[in-house]
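# nightly structure sweep
# worker-07 picked up a monomer target from the shared queue
# config: single-sequence mode, recycle default, output format = structure tokens
# input follows
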Amino acid sequence: MDEIASPPSDDSDPAPAPGSPKGPVRAYSPAVLSDRQPRVTDLLPVRPLWVAVAMLLGLTGIAAIEAIHIHAAALPLAPGGEQLAALDASSRGSLAAWYSSLLLAMATAAALVVFAIRVHRVDDYRGSYRIWIWTTAALAWLSLDAATGVHDALGLAVNAAAGQHGLGSSLAAGSTAMWLALYGLVLGTLGIRLAIEVWPSLPSFAALLVAALLYLCTALLQLDMLAAATPLGQSVLQSTLTLLAHLALTTSIGLYARHVYLDATGRLRVHIDPDKKRAAKGKGRAKLKVVKEDRVEDSPPAQKTAAAAPSRSAEPARFGAPASGAPKSGATISKSPSHYDNDDDDEEDASDYGGERLSRAERRRLKKLARRAA
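# output follows
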């Protein structure tokens, strides 16, 4: 068992000799520490240039595999040609099968990254991030299937469970139809839910649609609904469409992983239309103005007059001086309905109690004092 070196913790230990190292000796540079190691998200192609490079590398690999397949098929070999089976893109265990499994394994890793980031989103109240658990499991199964061809055995098992038995080509055709129907039902439903999930990233959504279209064309080739002129053309077309579908699916998951990472780190660019923002601001101001007008209309008559009149400083009315027309600040004048019935009396007594120089409230006050004195 390896020993774990630790510096001495007892102060009573004798001091080390001059020139000797203090504590354990580090055999590696500080770059080996965990906080300086690259993280999983650092492997995501964030810059558009690296995204384009990754896609071109994927297309280059497909082109190289198909070129090797065509060249190997044109070689004059003995019947059988088992030595070049690894170069035949339509056979199991070939370069095409390995490349397909590699692409789907990369998509599985990208789906795990998306799940690890999406699980921390605070506004995901319904738990939509759980779809990435099922997506990861489905991609892992597809990677296994691409390397081993286990779908044929699965189709045969479903065909036998359905009670359909046949011989030769009829059994193979029935098994192919069964596994295509099963994959279309399960993975098609998952793909629709995944399309809803990746909709905020338009490049990812477009890549997912392209992958679905390519998988549909591959299924039609498997069912012999589409056929090429020659057997070599048929095998090349089928393998090329399958590899392109895997690449499009991997690209879709990778682009959405990039989108989620940029969104989580606050580096996602958000386009704001200035005209739309200005129109929304003007609409908000108009709504505020309408609300203010409604408040003025609902206010009592005295408050409505105060709100409509411009604010200006006015002198309080004095006895014997002309009224300024504005009450004191902080003072409110309330009128009961009975006061409106005595307006005519107030006008008649205006000459007896100060004339027009006094306000109506002051004339009423003088009239009240005169009645008490009488």
